[in-house]
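To the wet lab folks,

You asked to see what we're planning to order before we commit. Fair enough. Below is the target structure as C-alpha cells, and below that is the sequence we designed to fit it. If anything looks off to you, flag it before the synthesis order goes out.
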C-alpha cells in the first residue's frame, strides 16, 4: 500500500472533467512531479489533495486513512504557492512561525523550530527582515520554510519557481531537491516545465486532458514515451516518414539499418541528440542538403532538407563551415528510434 493513494479521482465542472479517473500511488519520501500543459488537471489534483477542491468522485488515502474525511487545516500538509503568499507586515521569523502558532506550539519550541528551519533553507541571518526587503528567491525559500516547519506529512508545491528568472530558477531547483532529500518529506510538485519535472522528480506523472498519459522515471518517460503526446511534450522529437523492409527503414533521404525494426512502420521518431552530421568520408545511409546554417560559436545550427515537409534542425559541433546548398551525410543512432 502506497503512503498516498489517489483512486479513480475525478473532478467535474458541469460537463467538463478537469480530472478524469486519476489513479496514483506515492511512496513515503518520494518526490513526484505532476507535469502537463495548462488545463490538464494537475493543479486541480493538487487542490483536491490539499482539500481546497472537493472531488466529484474517487478516493484519497494518506497512510491508509481517508483524507477526504479530514478538514483541510487538519490534514498536516505543507503547501507552497506560486505567489508565495507571505504576510507583508510580518518578519521572516513571524511568517515561518505562523503555522506553529496556529497549532498552539509554545513560544520557546516555536523559536527553536523556526531557527532550525531557516538555517535549513539558508536564511538563518534573515529572521528579522520583512518580505519586501528580500529577493524573489529568498521569498521563495521563506515560503518553503513556512511549509516545512510544521513537519508536514506531504509537501505540496504549486509551480513554486515559475516567478523566478531562468538562472535563479535553476539554482533553486538544486536547493529544493537538496532540502527535500535532507528532510525526506513526501513531495508532490505541479509544473508545466519539462526540465524542472525531470530535474526534481523521482517519478513524473504526465497529464493530458485530465487523464494520466504516462507515469514513470524521468529517463523512462524521455526515452520510452508511451504516446505521441508524451513524446512531443517531453523534450524535442524529430520524425521521418518511410517504410520498413528486412530490418531497414527507407525514407526519401536514404536507408537506416535497424535490427530492432518492427514489421511495419510508416514513421519513425527520434531525439535531436540521436542524429548527427557525419564527417567527410564517413559511411552514412542518409543524405540531405543544407537549407540554412547559423554559426552559434560552440556549434552550428543546421536546417537540413531531407525531402520532408519541414527540414531537420540539427546542432553540429563539427569544425567546418556550412553553406546553403551543401550536401551533407547524416547518421541516426538506431537505439533512439521510436515507432508510436
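Sequence we intend to order:
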Amino acid at each position: 500500500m502506497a503512503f498516498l493513494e489517489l483512486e479513480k479521482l475525478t473532478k467535474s465542472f458541469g460537463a467538463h472533467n478537469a480530472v478524469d479517473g486519476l489513479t496514483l500511488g506515492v511512496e513515503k519520501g518520494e518526490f513526484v512531479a505532476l507535469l502537463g500543459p495548462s488545463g490538464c488537471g494537475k493543479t486541480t489534483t493538487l487542490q483536491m489533495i490539499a482539500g481546497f477542491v472537493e472531488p466529484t468522485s474517487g478516493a484519497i488515502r494518506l497512510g491508509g486513512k481517508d483524507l477526504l474525511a479530514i478538514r483541510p487545516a487538519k490534514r498536516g500538509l505543507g503547501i507552497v504557492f506560486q505567489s508565495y503568499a507571505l504576510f507583508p507586515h510580518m518578519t521572516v521569523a513571524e511568517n515561518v512561525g505562523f503555522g506553529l502558532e496556529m497549532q498552539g506550539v509554545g513560544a520557546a519550541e516555536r523559536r527553536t523550530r523556526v531557527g532550525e528551519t531557516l538555517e535549513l533553507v539558508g536564511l538563518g541571518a534573515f529572521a528579522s527582515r520583512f518580505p519586501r526587503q528580500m529577493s524573489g528567491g529568498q521569498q521563495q525559500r521563506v515560503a518553503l520554510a513556512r511549509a516545512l516547519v510544521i513537519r508536514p506529512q506531504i509537501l505540496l508545491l504549486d509551480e513554486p519557481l515559475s516567478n523566478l528568472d531562468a538562472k535563479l530558477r535553476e539554482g533553486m531547483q538544486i536547493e529544493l531537491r537538496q532540502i527535500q532529500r535532507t528532510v525526506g518529506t513526501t513531495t508532490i510538485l505541479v509544473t508545466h516545465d519539462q526540465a524542472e519535472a525531470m530535474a526534481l522528480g523521482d517519478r513524473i506523472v504526465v497529464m493530458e486532458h485530465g487523464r494520466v498519459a504516462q507515469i514513470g522515471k524521468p529517463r523512462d518517460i524521455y526515452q520510452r514515451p508511451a504516446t505521441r503526446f508524451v513524446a512531443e511534450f517531453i523534450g524535442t522529437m524529430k520524425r521521418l516518414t518511410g517504410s520498413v523492409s528486412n530490418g531497414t527503414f527507407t525514407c526519401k533521404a536514404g536507408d537506416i539499418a535497424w535490427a530492432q525494426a518492427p514489421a511495419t512502420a510508416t514513421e519513425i521518431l527520434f531525439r535531436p541528440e540521436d542524429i548527427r552530421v557525419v564527417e567527410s568520408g564517413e559511411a552514412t545511409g542518409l543524405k540531405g542538403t543544407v537549407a540554412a546554417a547559423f554559426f552559434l560559436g560552440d556549434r552550428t545550427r543546421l536546417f537540413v532538407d531531407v525531402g520532408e515537409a519541414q527540414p531537420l534542425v540539427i546542432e553540429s559541433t563539427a569544425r567546418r563551415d556550412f553553406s546553403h546548398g551543401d550536401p551533407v551525410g547524416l547518421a541516426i543512432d538506431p537505439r533512439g528510434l521510436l515507432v508510436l
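Structural context that might help your review: The chain has two domains: 4-233, 246-336. The radius of gyration is 25 Å.

Thanks,
Computational group
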